[in-house]
Amino acid sequence: MYFSGENKYLVILKRAIFLAGAIIGLLVNIHFAAAQVSEGGYPLQVISVKSVGAEAVKMPEVKQSMIDSLTAENSSNERNLKAFRFAYKFNVDFSPANSGQWYSTNSGFNVWKLTIQSAGAQSLNLIFHNFQLPEGARLFLYNEQEEHYLGAYTAKNNKVSQKFAVSPVAGDEVTVQYEVPKKLGTPSCFEIASVNHDFVGILKSERRPLGLAGSCNVDVNCDVAGKYGELKNAVCRLIVDGDEICSGTLVNNTAKDGKPYIISAAHCYDAWELAETTVYTFNYESPYCAPLDGDPGNSISGAVMKAQSDSLDFALTEMSLVPPPTYRPYYAGWNHTDVYSDSTVSIHHPQGDVKKIAFDENKPTPSNFTVDYIPNAFLKIATWEAGVTESGSSGGGLFNRNGQLIGTLTGGAATCIKPVNDYFANFSVYWDYYPDSSKQVKCWLDPLASATSSLDGEQFNSGEDLCGAFTNLNDNDEHGNIRITSGGSFAGYWGGTNTVGITEIVEKFDIPGSESLKGVSLGVGKMVKKAGGISTVDVKVYEGTDMPGTVLFSKTVNITSLAKDAMNYIDFGQDVKPVGTFFVGIDIRNIQAQDTLVLYQSLRNTGEENNFYYKRSGDWYNFETNEQGVMTSVMELIACNIDQVTDTPIVNVPADVWLYPNPSNSVLNVVSDQEIVVETISIFNVMGQEVQAPLLSVEENRVKIDLSGKTPGTYIIRFNYNDSFVTRKFLVLTP
Predict the structure, then answer these.
(1) How far is Cα 496 from Cα 707, in angstroms, rounded to an integer?
(2) CA 217 → CA 417, 520, 592, distances in Å?
(3) Tens digits of per-residue pLDDT, 258-300?
(4) Which of 99, 505, 584, 653 reaches 20 to 30 Å from 160, CA-CA?
(5) Are both 317 and 420 inside the same structural domain?
(6) Are residues 126 and 61 part of one domain?
(7) What's the pTM?
(8) Residues 246, 180 within the same domain
(9) From residue 76, how far is each of 28, 46, 48, 71, 73 by CA, in Å?
(10) Are 301 and 242 in contact (CB under 8 A)?
C-alpha cells in the first residue's frame, strides 16, 4: 500500500416524525452540540398528531440585489471603516403567546416549539428581548437536519437587560424549543425580536470558500507569531446584534480583578445597547499555520457598555460572564504613553474569518483619520510588512513589541494588493481625552487611580484552571485526505473509512505535567452520508507508551454532527487524566459501508516525527514501520492543570525562524534568532527540485529573497540552524 494527498488546502435529521402521546429523550450519546456557555443536554422529542410544518414561519425572500448591496458595503464605504456585514436582519415579534405551538405532555413539562425558515440562509441567529426564563425552564435552538444544537439555556442566562443573543445555527431553518415545568403553566417569558439571515456563511457547518479573507493574511498560529502565543488568546470575534462582525480584545485593569472588559471600535456598535446583543467568540482559529476553519463554540452572550466615543472611535464593554478556563482567557496589557515601539502587530478576524496577525516593522505615527473624528487622534500604519486588515478587523488591537495594547482599528485603505494606510484609534488619546467616565477608559482600566502609564498582560487562571491547546502540527505540515492504494486500486483513507481492515486511528501525545484532558478538536476532511441509518465514531483516549493500551475514555459521536473542512470540538464532559504518553483518536467500526468520514492528516518526510498509529485486524501499528514516510493527524487537545500555558505545537522545531510575507508574490524575508549562513540556503519546489532565487539583501540574521518569476505554488527553504538544518514552507502567489 502507499498513500497520496487529496484536496490539500481546501477551503469553507430529518425532521421529527410526529405521532401521539408523550415525550421521548433524544439519544444523547450520538449527537454533538457546540455552543456558547449553556447547561448542555438535548431537547425533548415531542410526539404529536399535528402536521409537521404547522408551526413553521417562513421569512420573506432575501433578494440577491439586497445581498449584493450589503456585500458592497463590506468592500467599499465612504469612510473606509472595517466592520463586516454578514447577515440581513428581519425585525419580528414572535413569542409563545402569539406564535408556535404548545404541547402538553406526560413527562412533567409543557413544550413550546417554533420553526423559522429563511430560504437560502447559510445560518440563522436570533435576538431575544424580554428574556426572563423561570427556574426549571430550558430553551434550545437547533437544526435537526444539520445536527446543530444550542442550549440548554436556563434562568442562569437571564440578564438585567432582559436581552439575549445566540450564536448562529447552521442552515436555513432553526427550531426554538421552550420546555417549562407543568406547574408553571404556559408562560410567555421572551420575545424573538430579530431573525438574522446569514448570506456569507460564517459557520464551520456551512463552508465558506477558502480565501474569503485575503490570501496575504497570516494565521495566528504560524511560527512567526510564536512570540504572541498568549496574547492571541485575548482577541475575540464580535457578532454585533446578529448581523455585523468586528474584532475585540480582552484587557487587564490595575485592580487585576479579572473583570472581562472588551475593547473594540465605537462604529461597531450603532447604539450603546447593542453591547447587550453581541456574541463574543474566543479561540476561533486554525490550529496551525494553514487555512483550516476553526470551531466557533467558545462564545459568551451579552455585555454592558461602559464607555464609548464616536469621535475617538473606541468602545469598552464588560461581558456578562468571565470566560471559563477552557476558553484560555488572557487579559492583554496596555500602554497609554505617546512613546511608540519601532514595530507593532495587530491580531484580528478579517472577514470574520479565523484569527490572523499582521506585522509592521516601523513605528506608527500619530495622524488624522477623516473629518468625522478628533484630529491627530489616530495611529497610522503606513505599510504592513506581512498580513493586512480587512472588513471584520474593526476594533482589532494594535500591540507594541511588549504585547501591550496601543490602539484599536478604525479603518483604512489597506488590502492584500496594496497593504498601506490603516488607522487605529490611539489608546493614549482616548485614555482620558474626555473627563466624562462614559467617554474614557482611564476610569475603568485604572480603578486604583494608580497613575501608571502601562500595564502588562496577565493570565489569571492557575492550577487546575490553567488550560492550553496542544497539537503535533507545525509550519511544515500540509493537511489533506491521505489515500490508501492497495494492489493499484483506491482502498480508502488512512484517516478514516477504508477497505483494508483499519478500524481505529489515533494520535500520540505527551504533555508535561498532571494534565486533565477536557476535549479534542478533530480536523474533518471529508464527511459523506449516503446510507439510511446512523453512522457513528467512538472518540477514545488510550493510555500507553509505545502503543495504545488501556482505554481511559470513550464517547460516541454521530458523524453527521461533524463539519467537513473544519475543526470540530468534542467536549469529553469529564476530566480524563492520562499519565505520561497517551493516544487520542477514533474508532470507525460503526460507520456504515456507504458512508465516509476522514480526518485530515499531514505527510512528513522519513526521519521526522511520527505521531500516527492505527489498528488493523486487531493489532496496533506504528505508521513509521511501513517505510512510507511518517504522518501526523489534525487534532488539537484542550487540557487543564498544565505546568505552563502554551498554544504552540508540541513538536520541537525551531520557533525563532520567521518567513514573511507568506504567501508572497515577489519578495520573501527570512529572519532568524541565529546567524543565517547564506551559503547553506537552498530552495526546493514540491517535486524536490532545487530552484534558484537571487538574494536581494543579506544581514547577519535577515535575508531578503527575490521570488519574481517563480511559478505559483508551494516551496521549501532550508538552511543551517545551530548544528542541524531548519526547513520552512512558503507559498508563491501569482503577481
Answers:
(1) 38
(2) 11, 26, 40
(3) 999 999 999 999 999 999 999 999 999 999 999 899 999 899 9
(4) 99
(5) yes
(6) yes
(7) 0.84
(8) no
(9) 46, 48, 51, 9, 5
(10) no
